[in-house]
Specification:
Elements lengths: L3 H10 L2 H12 L5 H24 L4 H24 L7 E6 L7 H12 L3 E4 L6 H11 L3 E5 L5 H14 L7 E5 L5 H7 L3 E3 L2 H12 L1
Parallel strand pairs: 1-2, 1-3, 3-4, 4-5
Length: 212
């Protein structure tokens, strides 16, 4: 088993060499699905530390972008192992970072993990208008709508999206999960979502429960 604390620190330090060596070690093993999930969790914890370093002024926007690229590379390499650990058929998810928010690191991590869990993901990208999400739900008839946002103002867009799904008569046919830094149980209830998560692995389990 790789040292998860070392991985978390390496992600925080943006140390690709340490991360790549650990991933190669995991991928060299036959039954590696569970360990691959632990590696992802450790890297997510490292991303939290990256965010704290940014908030304190130690890191800058370029460091955040690079951290996202490093984490996406980790996810891409581990995807076969993560997929091997999930034999269940997934559902269909329409995913978006809501209008007014340009952050996509968390969304992309979640997308990689639900794709590894055999879900079909229609990723609409960032800063997505409410009408575009509603139109896509009408078009593809998904099981789940995933709304992501980091900024507090994103919560208004999430609520507007859920309201629009209601007005279009689509809300009862889909589950809505929201994710991002500002979400919690009270926010989830206020927005009218079915569930929330600030952890991608936990979010995947919620979605699997809905379609299982």
């Amino acid at each position: 088993m790789v040292d998860l604390k070392v991985l978390t620190q390496a992600m925080s330090d943006l140390d690709e060499d340490v991360l790549n060596k650990a991933i190669d070690e995991v991928l060299s093993k036959d039954d590696n699905a569970a360990e691959a999930q632990e590696v992802v969790k450790a890297c997510q914890q490292g991303m939290t530390l990256v965010g704290e370093r940014y908030d304190s002024g130690e890191y800058f926007i370029g460091d955040l972008v690079f951290a996202g690229e490093v984490l996406q590379s980790v996810m891409d390499k581990l995807k076969p192992a993560l997929s091997a650990g999930s034999s269940a058929k997934g559902g269909k998810i329409v995913l978006a970072t809501v209008f007014g928010d340009l952050h996509d690191i968390g969304k992309n991590i979640f997308r990689s993990m639900v794709e590894a869990a055999n879900f079909e993901v229609i990723d609409l990208g960032i800063n997505v208008p409410v009408s575009q999400i509603v139109d896509k739900v009408k078009e593809v008839n998904p099981d789940i709508v995933g709304l992501s946002g980091v900024l507090t103002l994103a919560l208004d867009s999430m609520k507007e999206t859920v309201n629009a799904l209601n007005e279009a008569g689509l809300r009862n046919s889909v589950k809505v999960i929201i994710g991002g830094v500002p979400v919690n149980e009270n926010v989830c209830k206020s927005i009218g979502a079915d569930a929330f998560s600030t952890n991608a692995a936990e979010g995947v389990k919620i979605c699997q429960g809905w379609v299982g």
